[in-house]
Amino acid sequence: MTPEQIVTELKALLDDGKVLDDPENLDHYGRDWTKMHAPKPVAVVFPRSTEQVQALVRFANEHRVALVPSGGRTGLSAGAVATNGEVVVAFDYMNQVLDFSPSDRTVHCQAGVITEQLQQFAEDNDLHYPVDFASAGSSQLGGNLSTNAGGIKVIRYGMSRDWVAGLTVVTGKGDVLHLNRDLEKNNTGYDLRHLFIGAEGTLGFITEATMKLTRQPDHLTVLVLGLNDLTNTMDVLQTFQKQIDLTAYEFFSHEAMQHVQTHGSVQAPFETEAPYYALLEFEAVSDQVMDDAMTLFEQCMENGWVMDGVISQSETQAHNLWQLRERISESIAPRTPYKNDISVIVSKVPEFLREIDDVVTHHYPDFEIIWFGHIGDGNLHLNILKPEDMSKDDFFGKCQQVNKWVFEIVERYGGSVSAEHGVGLIKKDYLTYTRSPEEIAYLRGIKQVFDPNGIMNPGKVFDLD
């Protein structure tokens, strides 16, 4: 079919939907936050229901037209980039909360619901949806689940998959499956939910999800500590976890904080300058918990692990301290950062991070490296900033060599080349650093079962050949 014929057929298929094919919208909806691949879709469609998604998939199978899912387009691995004449399926119109069960503490949503919308719905009903990250104001639930998004509260609440009670999906064959039916206990063979969570739309599209909610946290308190050395991150974590259940444990380098301060009106937490900082969050539900926190802080100071620290005395102060961590990405964005999202088991983090930092700074001493991440669950974000006098193409070319060195270290430590951002196009060439050839063969076999014609987000995660 010609592009014109495809657009005509799609408009007839989605009589109450929207089909766009103008250059501006093709460029907008055909990309995500990555800047390494030029979008070239043939059309963008906006279904309103699972039935319309099913009709689209059946049309795509009949005419061998590839489909690429598009949510909030906040991805960092080019998992939602359409580069080769695909039809982009945007879930912006599928943004309704369909049902709510206070007794089950579940909410049934369409895939286009914004993460922050779900969080607010839970709060309005005196409950809490705990999966949280910087893009919560624009990312969509379907995209979160398709990449198994994590974020800043994983140490306490886990990943997105831990909050899924049930899914409705349209497979690559065009079948509609209702997975798990929201049951807490359902021991009837393979749990297919977890194949679609993290699959990046390569097996089919998630159209609806029932998400579990929990109680609202109580008196969240933030403690920011200046650390003497990188290894002290583990000393502090182990000390606090013996007595306090942390809801977050983040870290960032002094260089990262400097960018935040330069970018906006965020003050340093204290006068003492430290090479690294840890941000701890916990529920101060009683005076005893606060007393315990202060005792542990003093213990860390006495052991020489911590140089200085500050603890929030109000919600406003807690929010302001969080800005030191949450504004890092936006503060370095003008420098065209090359981002890497990697992980190892928590105990190996300091040694792992230092080895990578040494390799990159040795080979590229003029590159500025910004470290931050969810260190409490072993997830590190390596950001290399482009020198102002270097072209983007030259910079990204040199970063490809950085990737090789970094991922060789990841492999040696038994880590992951993608902790929470997915594989997409950017990481697929490096999948073998984390997955064995046998595993990848099984992944391809699963893809063949659910998407025999290869129309669902082709070329992402791995190639079929």
UniProtKB/TrEMBL annotation:
Asked whether the UniProt record includes Zinc among its keywords, one would answer: yes
Cofactors named for this entry: FAD
A single Gene Ontology molecular function, please? (R)-2-hydroxyglutarate dehydrogenase activity
Q: Which residues span the membrane?
A: none
Q: Which InterPro entries match?
A: FAD-bd_oxidored_4_C, FAD-bd_PCMH, FAD-bd_PCMH-like_sf, FAD-bd_PCMH_sub1, FAD-bd_PCMH_sub2, FAD-linked_Oxase-like_C, FAD-oxidored/transferase_4, Oxid_FAD_bind_N
What GO terms describe the biological role, i.e. biological process, of this protein?
Answer: respiratory electron transport chain
Q: Where would I find the FAD-binding PCMH-type domain in this sequence?
A: 37-216
Q: Name one Pfam family in it.
A: FAD_binding_4
Q: What is its EC number?
A: 1.1.99.39
Q: Which reaction does it catalyse?
A: (R)-2-hydroxyglutarate + A = 2-oxoglutarate + AH2
Which key words are in the record?
FAD, Flavoprotein, Metal-binding, Oxidoreductase, Zinc
Q: How does it assemble?
A: Homodimer.
Tell me its family.
Belongs to the FAD-binding oxidoreductase/transferase type 4 family.
What name does UniProt use for this protein?
D-2-hydroxyglutarate dehydrogenase
The species this protein was found in: Tamilnaduibacter salinus
What broad taxonomic lineage does this protein's source fall under? Bacteria, Pseudomonadati, Pseudomonadota, Gammaproteobacteria, Pseudomonadales
